[in-house]
Amino acid sequence: MSPHLPTPPADPSSGAATPGTVGFTVDLASQEVLRRAHVMAALGPDWDPIEVLRGEEAAYDLLYSGLDAEQQRLYDDLVAAGVLPRRGGGHAAA
Length: 94
Description:
The chain is mainly α. Helices cover 45% and strands 0% of the residues.
């Protein structure tokens, strides 16, 4: 049989597997544990996830602060469309 032709399926009544196929599995669990250990080591012992989240919120507040009327309208349109999450009292921070 030419290597460019698909392998015909096995006859289900024969109980034989499809010729040329081999079961193959890879367990990546140990690799994932190692990856996570390296990430945590890179972050270091002083990493504070709560402080990081607070910093992100402060950055978003600053990003959407001081908008002029047109920017505020565009921001409100994006929130209404579901592109941006609603922040604070429904308007960008003043």
